[in-house]
Design goal:
442 residues; 8-stranded mixed sheet
Length: 442
C-alpha cells in the first residue's frame, strides 16, 4: 500500500509523539524532612548496617545510624516530618553508569535520534552535556533498576569531546548536571587490527597506520600543551583552549584502550605529557598490567562483563573475573556497559555487578564498583557514591538484593531528596494488560 505525502507526515508526527510520550515528571524539591528506618543499609564504602536508619533534609543526608542503637533512632524520629518503615528492605547509594550515551542516543536504528558524535577527528571542545535529552523514554527504564546518575559521553573521532556527570531526574540538562566537563575522551590507536565479528572472527593483523596515527595524536597534544603554557596572549583556538583543564590536572583524560600493548602505550603517552588524571576505559587486558596501572595511579572503567574472552588461550570466563583481578591487586575500577544497544542495556548495570560478585568480588565490593568507585573516578565522591552525612540524598530502596535480577525491585528512590517517579512505558504496558484481565498490577 502506498502512502501519500500527507499520510507520511501524519505517521511521522504520530511516531515522534509516541516516542516522547509518558515520560515521568521530575521529582519535586524536598521541603519536608524524611527518615527511613529498619532496612539493611549498604553504605557503598564496604560498610553494612543491619536494621539501619537514614535521615535527610533539604536534599542532604543528615544522619546514618545502625539499628544497634535503637533508642537513638526512636528519639530521632521526632525530628523528621515523615518517617517510613522499610524493615526487610535494602538501601543503597544511587547506582552510577559511566561512559554512557544514554540521553544522547535514543533508537540505534533511527539516525535522527542519535546525537553522540560530531564531525571531525579532534574535538576536545565538543560537549556531550548540551545534547543530553532529559525526556528520553529509555532513561525512565534505567531509573527503575536503580541507576540515577550517568556520565554522558561522546563517541567517534580520535578525541570525541567532553563528558559530564548528570542525574536522570531533571527538567533539562542545566538542572541535570552534577559535574560539568569532567574530562575528555581519547580513542587510542590500536596496534593490532581485529577483523570479522564475534561469531566468525578472522585473523588479526598489524595496524599499518599505527605510527602515523600515534604521531598525529602526539602532535596535537604537543601543540595544545605549547598553546596552554605560552605566557603571551595568542589567537584563540577553541580546541586547544578545551585542553587547559587537562594539562592543569582539573579534568580527567579517558583513554579508550582494551589490549595490553595499547594500554602500555597509553600509560607511557600519559606520562610523557604529564597527565595527572588518566583513566583507562575498556581495559579488557588490564589484569595483565595491574602493577603498571597501580604504580601510575591509573583507574579502569571495566567494559561489559558479559563478553567473550579477548584471546583463544584465555579462560572462557575471563571477562567475568576481571573485576576480581583488579580488586585483588588494588587497582581502582568501576563497571560500565558500553557496547551494542548500550543505552537500553544500562538498566543491566547492577546485574553486571552481580556477575562480578559471583566471580570473586564480595557483595560490598561489587556494590562499590557501581557507586563509590565510580564516583571517585568521576570526581564526584564528595557528593554521591556513598551514604554519608553531608552528601546528596540520592538513594534507592529495593525489596531484595538489587544486584540480583530475580530480587531487584526498586520500590523507592530519591535524587537530592526529591522522590523519583519509578514508572516507565514498559511498566505502564504491563499494567494496562494486567488490568484488561483483572490481574494484579506492579
Amino acid at each position: 500500500m502506498k502512502l501519500n505525502a500527507f499520510a507520511c507526515i501524519f505517521l511521522l508526527v504520530f511516531i515522534t509523539g509516541n516516542l516522547f510520550s509518558q515520560v515521568p515528571s521530575p521529582g519535586v524539591k524536598q521541603t519536608k524532612s524524611i527518615m527511613l528506618w529498619g532496612a539493611t543499609m549498604h553504605l557503598g564504602d564496604g560498610t553494612v548496617l543491619k536494621n539501619g536508619a537514614i535521615g535527610f533534609k533539604e536534599g542532604k543526608i543528615t544522619f546514618v545510624m545502625s539499628g544497634d542503637d535503637l533508642q537513638k533512632v526512636k528519639l530521632k524520629k521526632d525530628e523528621y516530618d515523615t518517617t517510613i518503615d522499610v524493615t526487610g528492605k535494602h538501601i543503597y547509594p544511587s547506582f552510577i553508569a559511566t561512559n554512557s550515551t544514554l540521553g544522547i542516543g535514543e533508537v540505534e536504528s533511527v539516525k535522527a535520534t542519535l546525537d553522540f558524535a560530531e564531525i571531525g577527528t579532534y574535538n576536545p571542545h565538543v560537549r556531550a552535556l548540551i545534547a543530553f535529552n532529559t525526556d528520553s523514554k529509555v532513561a525512565s527504564t534505567v531509573r527503575t533498576n536503580g541507576v540515577l546518575y550517568i556520565q554522558v559521553t561522546p563517541r567517534d573521532g580520535v578525541i570525541s569531546g567532553k563528558s559530564s556527570v548528570v542525574s536522570l531526574d531533571a527538567w533539562n540538562w542545566e538542572d541535570a548536571v552534577l559535574r560539568t566537563d569532567d574530562g575528555i575522551h581519547v580513542n587510542f590507536p590500536n596496534m593490532i587490527q581485529r577483523h570479522g565479528w564475534w561469531a566468525e572472527p578472522e585473523p588479526s593483523s598489524n595496524n599499518a597506520k599505527y605510527d602515523e596515527q600515534i604521531n598525529e595524536l602526539k602532535k596535537f597534544f604537543t601543540e595544545a600543551k605549547y598553546y596552554c603554557d605560552a605566557p603571551e596572549k595568542q589567537e584563540t583556538n577553541l580546541r586547544f583552549e578545551a585542553m587547559r583543564p587537562v594539562f592543569a590536572g582539573k579534568a580527567n583524560v579517558y583513554i579508550h584502550a582494551d589490549y595490553v600493548k595499547d594500554i602500555i602505550a597509553a600509560v607511557n603517552f600519559s606520562k610523557a605529557f604529564g597527565l595527572k588524571k588518566t583513566v583507562i576505559v575498556g581495559g579488557k587486558d588490564s589484569w595483565k598490567v595491574t602493577s603498571l596501572l597501580k604504580q601510575n595511579n591509573i583507574a579502569v572503567m571495566v567494559n561489559r562483563l558479559h563478553d567473550l574472552p579477548g584471546a583463544e588461550q584465555e579462560d572462557i570466563d575471563q571477562a567475568y573475573k576481571l573485576p576480581y583481578l583488579l580488586q585483588k591487586d588494588s587497582v581502582l575500577f568501576c563497571l560500565q556497559n558500553q557496547g551494542d544497544m548500550e543505552g537500553m542495556n544500562t538498566r543491566n548495570l547492577p546485574f553486571l555487578a552481580g556477575t562480578a560478585c559471583a566471580y570473586g568480588l564480595t557483595q560490598e565490593q561489587a556494590i562499590a564498583s557501581i557507586t563509590l568507585n565510580a564516583a571517585k573516578i568521576l570526581g564526584v565522591d564528595d557528593k554521591i557514591g556513598s551514604l554519608k552525612v553531608g552528601k546528596n540524598a540520592s538513594i534507592i530502596i529495593s525489596n531484595g538484593d538489587a544486584l540480583d535480577i530475580r530480587t531487584n525491585n526498586i520500590t523507592m528512590a530519591f535524587v537530592d531528596g526529591r522522590q523519583v517517579a519509578l514508572t516507565n512505558p514498559q511498566i505502564e504496558l504491563y499494567n494496562k494488560y494486567m488490568n484488561k484481565y483483572n490481574l494484579p498490577n506492579k
